[in-house]
Every structure is written in structure tokens, then in C-alpha cells.
Amino acid sequence: MGVCNALLVAGLTLAAAHAGADAPSDAQIAHIVVTANQVDIDAGNLARSKSKSRQVKEFAERMIGDHKGMNKSALDVAKKLQIKPEPNATSASFKEYADKNMKKLKGLSGSGFDKAYIDNEVVYHQNVLDAVDRTLIPGARNEDLRALLASVRPALVAHLDHAKRLQDATK
Predict the structure, then answer these.
(1) Could you tell me if 84 and 78 are in contact, meaning their C-beta atoms sit under 8 angstroms apart?
(2) Which residue, among 154, 41, 50, has the nearest Cα to 108 in the 3D structure?
(3) Are 77 and 103 in contact (CB under 8 A)?
């Protein structure tokens, strides 16, 4: 497991550890959601500018658009609930993971970049789905926040499936 993947798993382990009595608050969950989406938006923007593959560029465009929409929805729900997304250890680990991954990706080009970007998207979406299923949905106290998380889950599954198909094509 690479350093980036280890950081992500550590962050998700922190989130899972909170799944009990001291689960993350709704404000912390909102920050985790916003951070996780921004990580994928940033990676998508880099892929859009660096990749030479039409398929990878199209995938990156989809990630940018879908995750911007998810962030808007998350921020709208937070505003409606009058909660301010609160930084926490899990959202910080996502940010640290993203910084290391972006540094790695910026140093790559051509098919090496495409492969690393898509491989990351597979791992990242699987881990985010695991966090949504094991920690975020069960931990959300507010029904609107829980409903938002449940409503974006199918898009995350579709992203993972799409990334896996691209991963198979880049082998």
C-alpha cells in the first residue's frame, strides 16, 4: 500500500472509530463530505489538464461536475440545518492524502499519469463508499443529512464502476 493509500485508510479508520458513541457530529460529517468532494474535484481538474486520453478527460469532467454538485447539495443542507462544517481528523486526513496524491500525479505524464490517476480513483471511491456506508450515514443524526448521503451513494458507486472499467482499459 502506498503512502497516499495508507493515509486515506488511516483517515477512514479514524472515521470508523467514531462510529460508536462518539461518532462525528453532523457538522464534522458535513466537513468530511465537502473535503472528500473537493479532493476529487482537484484531482479531476489536474487530469483534465494533463491527460492526453479522451476517456480519462471525459471521466475527469464527470468527476468535476458530479462532485461540484454534491458539494453544493451538502452546503445547501448544512445551511438549511444551520450547521457550519467543522474540520476534524478525518477531513484533515483526506486533505493530507490529497496533497500527497496531487504531488505524485503532478510528477507524472502520459500513460503513467492516466494509470496513476485512474488507479487512485478506484481506491479513493471504494474508501469513500466504505466511509459513507460504515460511518457517515449511520452517524448522521439529522434526517436531511442522512438522506443527502444516501442520495449521493449511487453516484459514488457509478464513479467507482466507471473508474474500474477505465482501469481495466489502461492495463
Answers:
(1) yes
(2) 50
(3) no
Name the 3-class secondary structure at 46: helix
Round to whole Å and give the CA distance between 61 and 45. Answer: 8
What one-letter code names the amino acid at 21?
Answer: A
Radius of gyration of the chain (CA): 16
Q: For residue 88, is it left (φ>0), alpha (ψ between -120 and 50) or beta? A: beta
pTM for the model stands at: 0.88
Confidence of residue 142 (pLDDT cuts 50, 70, 90): very high
The packing angle between helices 26-50 and 110-131, to 10°, is 160
pLDDT digits (tens, 9 = 90+) for 33-81: 999 999 999 999 999 999 999 999 999 999 999 999 999 999 999 999 9
> CA–CA separation, 10 vs 96, rounded Å?
11
Ordered domains of the chain (ranges, CATH)? 3-12+25-169 (1.20.1260.10)
CA–CA–CA angle 149, 152, 158 (5° rounding): 140
For residue 29, give the nearest of 128, 139, 168 by alpha carbon: 139
